[in-house]
Amino acid sequence: MSDRIFGGFGLALAIFYVWAATTIKDSFMVDIVGPRAFPYIVGTVLGLTSIYFVIRPDKEPDWPILKDLAEILFAAAVMLAYCWVLPEVGFVIATIFATAYLTWRLGSAPLWSLVTGLATSVGIYVVFHLILGLSLAKGPFGF
Amino acid sequence: MEILSLLADGFAVALTPQNLFLSVLGCFLGTLMGALPGLGPANGVAILIPIAFSLGLGPTPSLILLTSVYYGAMYGGRISSILLNIPGDEPAMMTCLDGYPMAQQGKAGEALSLSGVASFVGAFVATCGLVLLAPQLVKIALLFGPAEYFVLFTVAFATLGGISSTNQAKSAFAAALGLGIAMIGSDSQTGSQRFTFGHIHLYDGIDFLIAIVGLFALSEVFIFLEHHRGGAASAGTAKVGRIMPDFSMIKRCIPSMARGTGLGFFAGVLPGAGASLGSFLAYSLEKQAVDRDGKTFGKGDPRGVAAPEAGNNAASGGALVPMLALGVPGSGTTAVLLAVLLQLNITPGPLLFTKNPDVVWGLIAALFLANFILLAMNIPLVGIFTRVLMVPTRILMPVVAMISFVGIYSITGSTFDVMLMVGFGVAGWLLRKLEVPLVPVILGILLGNQMEVNLRRAMTISDGDWLILVGSPLTIILWIIAITGFVLPMLLGRRVKKRMEAARNEEEFVGD
């Protein structure tokens, strides 16, 4: 069943892709094939393989139980929030909390998570920014 | 002789203090990443590309660093196979079969040093093979026109699933997905905006590094979260025992290493085979050759450690041949190495050998050096790496995630791109659950634009006649390879997969 749903999504994606390809505008430069031909081919392959998934689905993958699925969604949400606040509060503070969350969810005790977060954040800051000179997000405090 | 003088120039490049240092560093990091379950060579190199790039290293030093990581990871994969029966990366799977029983018999040290020597032999011979074979392949590749290149890319996609692929439709879907993503941005030929929907962040297209780090490294973090696998790989210090190799044992294993190396190199050069198949072939044929009744193999036979290790490392050297000479990688990790070259604005392929000989030969010399460094690191210092296995993944995986963020942020400096990477991470997790291979997606993103450009050039030459794609003997041969490579797994895939899975435990991996 999962493969059938996946195939349905794939087919919708393929149709959308081909439609989006038809809207590509020509520019003043032209070549024989034009900018649309290759996307049409790609869209067709996407569509045909998706139809195959609907007709001949593989056996069901072992989906995680709802709790573990929520785990992944929350982790993704935390990472997105991390990206979003990165320029607001700076690398070090954002990273402490993001790391603490991840290590807590992987089984560290809450207090130790904060310690791990702090150590990771400062460690990365020292190695990658102070020693190697990579540019990291600067917050209001400059780190 | 010309090759020798070119190689000598290469050594002059590789032996500068900076490059030597990078090589040692790369070997160390690579062995570390290979040893840790869940961080294979593809992941390891992927995380380090943006970092090497934002450090402002030149093309040759970056390549030296990252290929040392690649070779190192191939060596390191065996450590946890032998000590813990958990392969550090997919190609090291076969090493578990005899390596772990040896460790249980108290011969872990012997197994480690023997496999270190076998890795060295495999990788060294394969690097020699690379030196001899790549220039020959370049001569053929120079005959290729745009039509041949287009078909060659098709060969790469058709064969990438490999012989063990059970669902070719999913490989094809993955390839199309990657190619589709590559089309986003302004068209290289005419400048038309494609699939950008007026969104300014998409005008330059999606950076392939974002996709690679997201799909490979972040999806791995999600897999660990899903299974709550937070413990350490190894609970206490595993007993290693004597570390120095037992020379009589090594002597006994020389024929096994030779056979393993030959097969592995062959599997590596072939499109779509890669190191996993190399070690699998080496092990099963070695078993056929010396232990037909199954008396000693699987119970700690040293030959069962030597053959697959030589095979896996020979295959990783062999896989560099098509990548460097044709610009078409045959496995996940070489696809990531292709990303390194593209990121450095170097187009691999036949012209690389004539236009940037210093890069090619510096790289090859670095591979030779890396082999010696790795041999030295892996035999006396193996104890350091066994200790790393005690770091729990609940600390390790968040660090991996954060370094991925640091790398992408430091090259793009854009919040949008980092968020996109999280998106790719979730998509990668979903695709892995649905058993859609990720390597074709990556390869599609990497090669999409070149594939299209070659198609359009071919059409311009033929004035719009699609028959040019089957218009020369070379294209017809390539089509035959592509079709065979795509159809064969449908017939044999399930059988090969079943045999490989007999040896595999439930660990999940990203390519090899």
UniProtKB/TrEMBL annotation, chain A:
Q: Which residues cross the membrane?
A: 36-55, 76-102, 114-137
List the InterPro entries hit by this protein, alphabetically: DUF1468
Keywords attached to this Swiss-Prot or TrEMBL record, sorted alphabetically, are:
Membrane, Transmembrane, Transmembrane helix
Q: Which Pfam families does the record associate with it?
A: TctB (PF07331)
Q: What is this protein called?
A: Putative tricarboxylic transport membrane protein
**Which residue numbers delimit the DUF1468 domain?**
5-136
TrEMBL record, chain B:
Q: Which top-rank group of organisms is this from?
A: Bacteria
Keyword annotations:
Membrane, Transmembrane, Transmembrane helix
Recorded protein name is Putative tricarboxylic transport membrane protein
Alphabetized Pfam families for the sequence: TctA (PF01970)
Q: Which residues cross the membrane?
A: 20-39, 46-71, 111-133, 140-163, 169-185, 206-225, 265-285, 319-341, 361-386, 398-431, 466-492
What InterPro entries is this protein classified in?
DUF112_TM
DUF112 domain location is: 20-443
